[in-house]
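User: Hello, can you help with two protein structures?

Assistant: Certainly.
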Amino acid sequence: MRKLHVLAIACLIILSFLLSACRCPSCYRQEETVVPREVLIKTNNFIKQRTGNEFFEKYITPDFVKTKYVAPYFNMVYRFVMPDKSYVNELIEFSVDTLGNIVRDRDIVGIPNCIDADCSFNITEEQVIKIAKDNGLQKGIKDWKTGLIWDAKLNQYVWHILSTDWASEGPQGFRGSGKEAIIDPNTGLILAMNDWHVN
């Protein structure tokens, strides 16, 4: 009987140890995708063609947790972060085959063009709000929604400001209208002022 009691306690101790071992932070980490070195070199170089080497090394890093292999492609994800500019915290995404060749018929998102254009991202959120006000964007009925986003049509990052003139929530969901301002984050130039509607 005593042996059974000791054995039961030993089993509980071992079980408790195993359970507590799986509470460590690494158990909850998502699995990182292993990208072959030759593929990574090609994908890094693809980004550097638009950003230049110095900008890439300073602000862009592979995100192997978000990167996924979904046969037959690697869906590559990089983080683009400028530590001294908290509003610049973006993702770069594109797909390559197993040899590292870019898949051109899939979206290529978030690579700034620093070779042909400015990549200072010096226009802050406060400055962009003032620019929008000075150019006639109306206050509206709600606080403006502002954010630095990738604009696929313009193929660049933009400050996007949304004002709401009218809004309603009902059985049909959200309905509303207003205006948007699209502003260059490097120069402060207004790229577009548009109406928006959700019916």
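That covers the first. Now for the second protein you mentioned:
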Amino acid sequence: MVNAKAQKEDFELDSGLPDDFDAQISNATFGFKAEYQDGKVPLLLLELEGKEIEPTTVAFSIGADWKVTEGGHRVEHPRGKKRFVATSMIGRLIERIVKQMEVPLWERGYPTDADIWTGLAFHWKREEVTFGKGILEEKGGKTTHLMPTDFLSAYATGETANNIARDMEAKLAALAKTSPDSSSFAKAALKVPGVAANTTLINSILDDSSKGYYALHKG
């Protein structure tokens, strides 16, 4: 039986690649993939887990001269460089998350540390990426790549969720002890990652009475 309501777009095909989903970075390392530069050039490898997808790993190029150290937890440059090139995929990732989303990655460590990414969650979408001259010329200098589009501060599960909660609590408690008054504490506390997604916690932070967060934790 012919379905008269079907449209031409119903017959478009899917690439089969993960796209348009929420996922948390369950693990992050610097390492290699055999299919990328014959497995000789390091990448940032982010392992993603989410309810809508099977566990998957997304790789971000970091440049050819970096050396992987500490079992993949860190990279170092032989000439002492500390910054990644803006046009590399890790450079685009940092630009997206730090500059556009304003996620304070610097509170977690240095860009050359892989562990700063573990536990963060985002909405991911496959985007077209354009490279400069000499890169992927056989594909017109373009490809598609999974990129984060929204920061999901409240998206966490299992032990990672517990770790994030403990980390947030430790930062808030430290702020309460060092802030001169409730107003100063509230101003700083509301900027702590994860707080904005917890309405009950926000109310406690803004409560300047003897039952508020500051009064109970200032010591």
